[in-house]
Design a protein that fits this description.
Blueprint (H helix, E strand, L loop, with lengths): L5 H27 L2 H7 L6 H10 L13 E8 L4 E8 L9 E5 L2 E4 H27 L5 H33 L2 H31 L2 H26 L2 E7 L16 E7 L7 E5 L2 E6 L7
Antiparallel strand pairs: 1-2, 2-3, 3-8, 4-7, 5-6
């Protein structure tokens, strides 16, 4: 029987995975933007080797005890259970604090790769059926044996067909979302209509020089057009991001870079997350921190 609080614990586990990445990202950001690090990187009197040596010696605070011993973030792969464990421990190896975070982030597979897998399985099953038919046809297998062999793979045929259909339907719902397309069309109609009203006020101002028309045009753009543009963009593209690329192309601003950072707008109709299927729910194995830092 499903416990009343099962959904709460599932949500808690998802939140804990997000919390882990938030803590790690904040820690990495503080290291990257620290004054001591920037001072070393910008020191032109030091060689790249000297800079790397000094950077490796920098001590950052543990996220739990806040001593200048750092925090060790690791991803461990459990080969027996076939899942990853995200960990965080105090950087003091001799006298570590109570920091002990271990989170299983769950297991995910891309829907297209799952479809490919079941299509390949389908082909194997077809070949097995053809082999049974041929062996029966040429007298290498009796009809009774052929029926027994077919019954053995019959369940595999049904299960595979069901799962393949399920994931193809899931993929089509994401890629060919009719409900979303209808919403986009309706919002585009509203947008064009609103833009026409906006233009009328601008044209009217050109004729009469009445500032009320300018104020109304600004209000329409700010309160109606701008929000509509954002809504349409979010419906069209699940993921919109700015990609920063430095001179050496690694996305980081470090001692190897020269020149300016280039920024590119990246728009994706389908986010990576929307094309993923959860095979295994996240799980908190351990979450121990000092009281003042415990979430």
């Amino acid at each position: 029987m499903k416990h009343l609080y099962d959904n709460y614990f599932i949500n808690f586990n998802y939140m804990s995975v997000d919390e882990y990445y938030e803590i790690k990202n904040k820690y990495d950001f503080e290291i990257k933007t620290s004054k001591a690090r920037k001072k070393i990187i910008k020191n032109d009197t030091l060689s790249i080797k000297e800079k790397r040596s000094l950077l490796s010696q920098l001590k950052h605070k543990c996220i739990s005890c806040e001593r200048p011993v750092g925090t060790i973030f690791k991803t461990i792969f459990d080969s027996d259970k076939e899942f990853r464990i995200l960990t965080a421990r105090c950087g003091d190896k001799l006298a570590p604090c109570k920091l002990n975070i271990q989170v299983n982030p769950g297991s995910y597979n891309s829907i297209p790769s799952i479809i490919d897998f079941y299509e390949a399985e389908n082909e194997k099953i077809k070949q097995d059926v053809i082999t049974i038919k041929n062996q029966t046809l040429f007298g290498f297998m009796t009809n009774e044996t052929a029926i027994d062999e077919y019954n053995k793979i019959k369940e595999d045929i049904n299960n595979n067909a069901y799962l393949l259909d399920k994931f193809i339907s899931l993929h089509n719902d994401i890629v060919n979302n009719k409900e979303k397309d209808t919403m986009i069309r309706n919002k585009m109609k509203t947008l064009y209509s609103t833009i026409n009203v906006y233009k009328e006020h601008v044209d009217k101002y050109d004729e009469t020089q009445d500032t009320q028309d300018v104020l109304e045009a600004v209000r329409i753009y700010d309160k109606q057009i701008s929000p509509l543009l954002k809504e349409i963009s979010s419906l069209k593209y699940e993921n919109v991001s700015i990609h920063a690329e430095t001179k050496n192309g690694d996305g980081d601003e470090d001692e190897n870079d020269t020149g300016k950072v280039m920024y590119h707008l990246v728009q994706q109709k389908y986010s990576t997350e929307s094309m993923e299927f959860n095979d295994h729910e996240p799980e908190v194995i351990s979450w121990s921190m000092s009281e003042k830092n415990h979430f």
